[in-house]
Amino acid sequence: MDPSLLDTHPSSPVQSARLSEWARTSRTGVRYVETEAVWFRVREGGAGGPAVVFFADGPNALEHHDPIFNRLSQWTRVVVVDPPGFGFSTPKPNFDFTVGAFADGYAELLTSLGGPFVLCPTCTNVYPSALIAAQRPELVSHLILMQALDWDQEKMWTGKIVDPDGDLAKPFIGQKLNYRTRTTAPATWYPNALGAQDLAETFLKQSCECFAHGGNFCLASLIQNWFGPGVDSPSFLTFVQPALAVWGMNDRSHRRSDKRSLLNIAPHARYVEREGVGHFPEIEDPLWFEALLKDFLRDGG
């Protein structure tokens, strides 16, 4: 039995997230989009201009993106996505949590939304975004890749920082641990990841509200199906769209990381460092990110 079935089986507690009335009404512009393998929860707003897409990086959900959503939707179209198994997007039984499954799900979602898009992924969402840019270039006009390493170093970072005891990587045990600890994990993560400690309470409060209404955090299934024994590393083909490789330098979880290794996935990307912010640059300093985005789009990369 595939341990990720604990998350994808119709009777799994993960599946109840899509039934949450709060998840459908917490913000304006929220709706569900069904794809072959995922029920995606998305929020859309704004109009005109380039279409900009953000992917929530668990334990964040799309609600955490309010600061940047509110700014950008004043002048362009904005889409925020809960990833499969995180927030309130629910994977179907045929979703296997591989990086390819994430890429396929996102590509189908983006196709249904109509593009092309400026993709702004953070951390794990960088990898499926890079795959889409190479395999489905018609869907992607620009990329702003944030807070990610090359694949081999991301695997090592996950083992040292995210799952240092290796419990999440253990089939079945990891999924059950996720169910027990998903509401307490953010209290440890945010002080370590955020650039300014005075933001931790706001981020934590929002996460707690999402979890209180049935939000998900299927990190064990992701770790097992991305980095587990016998899992092949993805091949990142060259993509040509203009790209930025952005790092928040006050992310304590990455204080020893080789941040420029992200350029192994996007060799042509312009490398950008931002002091004073951490793991979520676009949310922690939305004013700066908005200016960065405008300059990037105006200059054509």
UniProtKB/TrEMBL annotation:
<dbReference type="InterPro" id="IPR029058">
    <property type="entry name" value="AB_hydrolase_fold"/>
</dbReference>
<dbReference type="Pfam" id="PF12697">
    <property type="entry name" value="Abhydrolase_6"/>
</dbReference>
<dbReference type="InterPro" id="IPR000073">
    <property type="entry name" value="AB_hydrolase_1"/>
</dbReference>
<protein>
    <submittedName>
        <fullName>Pimeloyl-ACP methyl ester carboxylesterase</fullName>
    </submittedName>
</protein>
<feature type="domain" description="AB hydrolase-1">
    <location>
        <begin position="66"/>
        <end position="290"/>
    </location>
</feature>
